[in-house]
Amino acid sequence: MNDCKIPNWAVRSGWWGRLQPGERARVVSEVSYQLVRSGEPLQRYGMPALYWIGVISGLAKFNVTTVSGKPLAYSGIGAGGWFGEGTLMRQGIWRYEALAIRDCELALVPRETFLWLLDRNISFSHYLLQQLNDRLELMTLQALDDHQGGAESVVSRTLRHLFHPLAGANGGALRVTQSEIGQLCNLSRQRVNQTLRRLEADGVLRLQYGGVEILDQNKLRDWEFHCLNARNGTKPCKEPGASPDVACVSAGADRA
User: Fold this and answer.
1) Cα separation of the two ends of the chain
2) Domains of the chain by range and CATH?
């Protein structure tokens, strides 16, 4: 397949370069598209999973409902990200819901095509394995943290996964507002602003109009873990590089 025939969304999809020409041709011929307005679900809880879903543009958050009936946002996905591989492998139903925070344009790869790629392309399978592992880490850390590790940990974790190469992030910049980060983290916009300012002062990121630019991925990960480690007794709860008397502020009291 010539480069001129490659769809725009493929450029931001980390798995596209792992496909052979014939595999690319089948995906392009069978993919469909859908526009989901802000506030609407990308897929519905309890319905059969029929597509591997990619976000061409927009921003969405993943919601689960606790046993008490309380909705909980546990991650976000932006342009270039794909999700649903675990559910498709099980050929099951959606056990969570993805809700559009911003209007989302989607690319839908049929389940049969997805499973066909999985069976024949080892490199594609490695991509999926890494993505599943990253999301397992995210959910494990969130279960350990439970919003008690500090707003810095929560915001840093959310940003790190939004900027992850497997999530389709190009470079270090992402168009995401502080209100949208607040929705993903379940924090007030004011608390998000305070947290981002602290991260900016430490050289982790640069705030832009309507967006964020990550300057240091290693520092971002340090911020993600420092309060969580303190809660588990690993090390004092302090800012990376700060003196021991600089304590983290719990996010619990500032949840939106």
Assistant:
1) 48
2) 3-121 (2.60.120.10), 143-251 (1.10.10.10)
